[in-house]
Amino acid sequence: MQPTVRVVLAEDGVLLREGLVGLLGKFGFDVVAAVEDADALKAAVEEHAPDLVVTDIRMPPGFSDEGLRAAVELRKAHPGLAVVALSQYVELSYSADLLDSNGGTSVGYLLKDRVVDVEEFVAALRRVVDGGTVVDPTVVRQLLRRSRDPLSRLSAREREVLALIAEGHSNTAIAQILTVAEVTVGKHIGNILTKLDLPLTDDKNRRVLAVLTYLRSRAAA
């Protein structure tokens, strides 16, 4: 008999969360906590010290990459923790960080709509707990494509700011559109110019070069 695996599950959808709790229980997993957001996930890991975390990526409050960022933080804080990201989408912002963490062991990234075989899914979870790596082929393809993209260094917010620059918006207009302070926009732009390794000419020319890089990346996508 295989040893019981203690699991913390993070999924904001009630039906899917409860369904996974029942499913995992039938296959020898003990779901010690089932939560709906990233903060509760981190608290549950600290409280229960599980063997495995299974987490959605897009969760409250922003429904962007909260679960993925939490998973990366947890892997740093708990190097022996096995983590599987289970998502409807491929979110690239922190995917490489998660898969590279702790030498790429005991980690997985699976897409929900491709998990159609229950026994295969359970086997994948156990491989991760045993130190293996399980990654959906779609995730692999998109990460490889991203590695050739000069914009891959940018955060999601920085890409958003760069897109608005490319549309011709001023810093003031971008601040209004994103509902942030203009100084915050300036910081994002500084980060963009640095991450794109643009030459230290005047800022106007660097903005133009950044826009050209953005447009070339979009054309190649």
UniProtKB/TrEMBL annotation:
Q: Which residues carry this modification: 4-aspartylphosphate?
A: D56
Pfam families noted in UniProt: GerE, Response_reg
- Tell me which SUPFAM superfamilies the record gives: CheY-like (SSF52172)
- Which UniProt keyword terms apply here? DNA-binding, Phosphoprotein, Transcription, Transcription regulation
The Response regulatory domain extends over 6-127
**Transcription listed as a keyword:** yes
Annotated signal sequence range = none
Indicate the segments forming the HTH luxR-type domain, all copies.
Answer: 147-218
Q: Does the keyword ATP-binding apply?
A: no
List, in alphabetical order, the Gene Ontology terms for molecular function in this entry: DNA binding
Q: Which GO biological-process labels does this protein carry?
A: phosphorelay signal transduction system; regulation of DNA-templated transcription
Specify the protein name: LuxR family two component transcriptional regulator
Supply the source organism for this entry: Actinomadura verrucosospora
